[in-house]
Each structure stands twice: as structure tokens, then as C-alpha cells.
Amino acid sequence: MQPTRKAILDILKEQGQATVDELAEQLGLTPMTVRHHLNVLQSQGLVVATQLRYRQSAGRPRHVYTLTEEGNDLFPANYHGLAVRLLDEIKEMVGEDKLQEILCRIGEKLASEAPDMQGLPIAERVARVADFLTDKGFISRWEKVKDGYALYQFNCPYRRVSRDHAEVCHMDRALISTLLGVELKRVNGMASAEEHCTYFIPTDLTGEEK
User: Fold this and answer.
1) What does the alpha-carbon distance between residue 132 and residue 172 come to, in Å, rounded to a whole number?
2) By residue range, what is the domain housing residue 55?
3) Does the structure show a pLDDT above 60 at 142?
4) I need a surface site. Which of 9, 154, 168, 209 has the fewest CB within 10 A?
5) 92 and 19 share a domain?
6) Span 67-83, average pLDDT
7) Do 87 and 67 belong to one domain?
8) Is the domain of 64 the same as that of 93?
């Protein structure tokens, strides 16, 4: 990223908010130059401007600038580290079987965020599940195969966590099974160093004629 824009983001992260004049003073630049960089950052969705309620003088309205969620996401985070430690503690406290049960329940609850698919043909349900998973960051695709359907996931939002806790995969399986209304079989998975996860939905479980 361009150094001045990175410096602006750093200031906003540290201070929470700042005006053009405040940024100009701290960076040793003219307000016009700072405003140019802010306009670029706004177009990228990294900062947002809010007009101050009270104007101290006539002329150009004053704005205060803050980071957006996207702007905050540029800074280092360690969510996977926290998640792994939480799962470590839960597993130690309640055991592996109970941890799997908890993760399956979470998957079932996540399924409630998807549109109702009851009554739809299985092929349409599989297609909608793939779209829903893609919206959640999985990059999911599907196809009709012999004796059923294959559902592929080319990205796992929890990949780094699943390397330490393969139990997380039970959550995905419960999510997909709940959405489809049938049990499914995972053929391979990224948690075991595969390039993608593959789930198989047998035709004889869907009620569809072969």
C-alpha cells in the first residue's frame, strides 16, 4: 500500500478518528494532499467520513474520518489462534465426543440462516446449498455423479483451525446435512491436506430414482 495511505490508516486505528486538518498536521502534509489520499481510501471502502454536527466557521463542512470494518481487517488478527485455544480448553473439559456434539449443534443452528429448502427437488437443494456455502466463504460447487451428487468445497474459512482440530469438520457436515435433509458422506477434506473437501450425497438417501 502507498506509504501515506498506510500512515493515515495507522493514525485512524490508533486514535479512532481524525479530521483532515489533524491528519495533515501529524503527517506534515497539506490538507489538499491528505484529502486526496482519503478520497482514494474511501473509494476502496477502507475509511468513512462523517460530517461534524457543528461547524465552527463558514466554508467547507468539516468531516471526521474513521476506519470501516474492511479497514480494520487490514490489521493483523489471530482469530484462529484464539479459536484453537478455546477448542483445546473445551475438549479438555468435556472430552472429544462432547466437543463434536457441540460443533454439530452449531452447524445445525447455522443452517437456520439459509432460505427454506423444504419441498424442493434434491438437485435444486444441492445447488442452493452450494450457493449458501459460497456466500459463507467456502467456494462451493456441485455436480451429478453416479448414484448421487458430489458437493465440493474449494476453500475452508476454518482451515487453519481444522489442522489442529479436525472436529470442526463435524460442524460443516451437520450444517450441510441439515440443509439437505439427508445424511451425507465426506470423501476427503482439507483438514487432511487434501486440495478440497468433497461430500457425497447418495441417491438412495434422497428419495430420488436412480
Assistant:
1) 12
2) 3-72
3) yes
4) 209
5) no
6) 91
7) no
8) no
